Amino acid sequence: MKRRQTILFAAATALAIGAELLFLSDGHPGTAWWYHVPGFAAFFGFFVCLGLAFFAKALGKHWLERDENYYRSGRASGD
Amino acid sequence: MIDFVPAAPLFVGALTLPLLPRALRPWLFVLSPALAFVLLTQLDPGATLTWPFLSYELVLSHVDRLSLAFGYVFTLVACLGAIYGFHLRDLAQQVAALLYAGAAVGVVFAGDWLTLYVFWEIMAVASAWLIFTARTAQSGQAGMRYLLFHLLGGGVLLAGIIWQTHESGSLAFNRLDSAGPGWLILLGFAVNAAIPPLHPWLADAYPEAPVTGSVLLSAFTTKAAVYALARGFPGSDLLVVAGTLMALYGVVFAILENDIRRILSYHIVSQVGYMVAGIGIGTEAALNGATAHAFAHILYKGLLFMAAGAVVHATGRRKLTELGDLIGSLPWVLVFYMFGALSISGFPLLSGFVSKWLVVHAAEIDHHDWVALLLSVASVGTFLSVGLKLPYLAWFGPKRAIRTGSIPPGMYIAMALASAANLVIGLRPDLLYRVMPYAADYHPYTALHLVESGEALVFTGLAFWFIRRQMNPKAALTLDVDWFYRKAAPWLRRNVVVAGNDFFAAMDALTLAGARQLCRLGADPLALFDFAGDGHRSFKRASTDTKIRPYDPDRYRGPVGVALLIILGCFVLLLGLTLFMSPR
User: Fold this and answer.
1) Binary contact (B490, A76; C-beta < 8 A)
2) Which residues of B touch A6 (CB under 8 A)?
3) How confident is the model over B292-335, as pLDDT tens digits?
4) B576 vs A75, residue with greater confidence
């Protein structure tokens, strides 16, 4: 199962970089360096997804998440 | 020159609904926005309707391409929302919905500050009423917080309008600088646009509204504010920063959320961020992008709220930790939901692809590269929460004993129509670009753009697949900025309301006691020296004694013997003096 996943991931990466190399010569409207890195969008999507998920989860675990009745206990809501 | 306010069919519909038999009301509920849409298609840019008011001339309606774009989509989504709620037999909800839609249309055609403010406040009250029509304890509490927030925002807006009118001597709704009165007006708009930290009312109240109501709420308030910002503050650098941050803020909180309608609510904050950033960039391409994204967003977000509402309607549940394995019972809802989810994620062939990337493209060509990059980060987060996590857990999550009820045909029809609208815009972006405020020269379907967006989406999907078990939400509440006022409320109540009440009650008792004493003394001044009657009475006793005794001369009249004794004493004294002092 893990091997299949690894093969799938490698194939998708190769396809992404290949496709972008094919069309990158079309010229990107943006001038920043990352627009001209082949496969940037693929890595961006992958790592930003992981980063956002773990950042949000850590934020919740260490700071923001409370019991569901947090505001109701002690009539803290002021309602 | 036009002869009518474009919102008139909606207001007339709201006022006529109570007069109709129950069975006919759903028809008028649908026909009013449909008629308003048809009337809008007859309007040409430049048409105005004026009304003299004191020394001013109010511009009740001013038609231009920007207001028409918002007017079209507002009436369209009101019509779809009415079809979705065709099964409703709740007069209050129907009237509130039409008033809300009418006020939103009124805002986007208002040509002066006063007209704008009046419609703005009708919108606040009607939307709060719509939330209250859920008739639950939570909707009552959240609706009250929502109303207070918006009335406060409206107050700030009014202060800015008065200041602006005083300074400029004109009520005309024109472009402003974010200085002086502009700051107050910007703050008033920012409340409705849900720009953090002024946003918590949105995720607090929208999930508590009835399911049809939340479809309309997702469309009007924030987008009317986007329109107002686009007209009043295009090119404000502050909005570029605020919009980019709110796009990220919404996605981070949505990842943590468990309630499906709260997830969608946080994504309103995020998506409005794109529009606000576009307005801040302020170029023609960026303003087109903000308008196009508002247009598409209203359609796909309405669709997402319809699908989420259908789940809530059928199951009575709203949390991902209580949902799962709905694929067998609600497969068509998933199909329609995915049209909305893929649209918001910017999938090719759907509306979000041709609108969202227009904003990002405008940022790129205006050299706001970091803004474009951060908006792309928000796009990944959107796909993660709305396109992957929510449908995965709700429709393919663990099996639970969920009894699903039937979904009215109107809900399915509305979802199908909204899906079709998103698809048509995705396939024919020229139809959308045709109604934009400026001529649009943007071609979303270039090979490079398709490859890049496809890569980002596929690899986001792959990343989600690797961490899907870590994405299970907790049955928990996420703190947001509302913590400050919800936690402060008991302290404020204790120290301001209760202490104030106690102080006023004490002053009240003291004043009443004083008044009673004065009345008593007025009726009987000798009571001040009252040792003859009842003797001395304490102030406290006097204050509680409500009986005022009139003056009674007999009460102070001594016995006859005393008078005779005094007279005799005086006689003896005089006689003695006479005898002793007479010359011998």
Assistant:
1) yes
2) none
3) 999 999 999 999 999 999 999 999 999 999 999 999 999 999 99
4) B576
Cis previous bond, B9, omega within 30: no
Per-residue DSSP letter, B257? -
Q: Inform me whether the pLDDT recorded for B187 exceeds 60.
A: yes
Q: CA angle B221-B417-B246, nearest 5°?
A: 35
Q: What is the pLDDT of residues B530-566, one digit of tens each?
A: 654 454 454 455 555 556 667 777 777 777 888 889 9
Choose the closest CB to A78 out of B252, B470, B489: B489
A56 touches chain B (CB under 8 A): yes
Q: Do A53 and B446 touch (CB under 8 A)?
A: no
Tokens describing residue B435: 């109604």
Chain A, window 31-50: residues with a beta carbon less than 8 angstroms from a chain B beta carbon: 31-32, 34-35, 39, 41-50
Set of chain B residues whose Cβ sits within 8 Å of the Cβ of A48:
376-377, 380-381, 460
Here the tokens at position B583 are 């010359």
Find the length of chain A: 79
- Cβ within 8 Å of residue B273, ≥6 positions away: B242, B243, B244, B245, B246, B247, B248, B249, B250, B375, B378
Compute the distance between CA of residue B558 and CA of residue B230 in angstroms, rounded to an integer.
91
Q: Is B462 on the interface with A (CB under 8 A)?
A: yes
Q: Nearest by CB to A23, which of B365, B451, B453?
A: B451
**B309 and B235 in contact (C-beta within 8 Å)?**
no
Helix (H) or strand (E) holding B94: helix B91-109
The three-class DSSP label of residue B437 is coil
Contacts of B433 (CB under 8 A, 6+ apart): B288, B292, B440, B442
- B52: which strand partners? B57
Residue B451, beta-bridge partner list: none
For chain B, counts of helices (H) and of strands (E): 25, 3
Q: Are strands B48-53 and A65-66 parallel, antiparallel or unpaired?
A: unpaired
| CB-based contact, B494 to chain A, within 8 Å | no
A58 at B interface, C-beta within 8 A = no
